[in-house]
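task queued by scheduler; priority normal; single chain, no ligands, no partner chains; default sampling; output format set to structure tokens
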Amino acid sequence: MKFTVIGGTGLIGSQVVQKLNAAGHQASPAAPSTGADLITGQGLDQALEGAEVVINLANSPTFDDASLDFFRTSMTNLLAAGERAGVRHQVILSIVGVDHVPQLDYYRAKTLQEELLRQGPTPYSIVRATQFFEFMDAVLSWTSDDRTVRLPATRIQPMASADVVDAVVEVATGDPLQGIHEVAGPDVFALDELGRVTLAAQKDDRPVVTDDRAGMFAVVTGDVLIAGPHAHLAPTHYRDWVQKTR
């Protein structure tokens, strides 16, 4: 099969391209660096030429309200280009619980992206994943100083990016779902607890102070970021992963 992977040079996209090509498919990355611009539409027709499946892994450069315009414009342009190219399946990567956190601009923007895809002209699939292990260092940096790290006790179910890649490839090589495939890590953590596990693995002796007003995830309540009962649970445990990557 021939795939175009939008955002195919990023953390997830580069792994998706590699995995598809290793399986004997023809997968090409499309990104600004390859001449494909989602916002202006320049280069999209060339990037999608002959593609049977488009996997959209492009991300907004910001997490504020500007992300709404990014996903509105990029999804609209990509759907139009896909229709012109005769694409048979559009796949996007989204977030577990994304439609339950309207307080976050970025989550509202991803919800809008899902809605545009559903309303579009092409059969589709949505892969909703939980937070990536690889982003934990960034989460710690948002609310830390030389002495302490402050994190809320928000419940999350993180997963390895490699497991996200497996889920995206599985869905993209199958028939369009006309719905959502949900994937998550095998373990649920409070975010402050996960911070302590991470710092211990890094031999960082700063304490984690539980602060339910700290950072982006402070507005999230309850279990909205926890996968539902029908989600596929990935095999990689965070404690094993963090020890191997340090």
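post-processing summary
- Helices lie at 11-22, 44-48, 66-85, 105-119, 136-142, 161-172, 191-201, 238-244.
- The chain has a mean pLDDT of 95.
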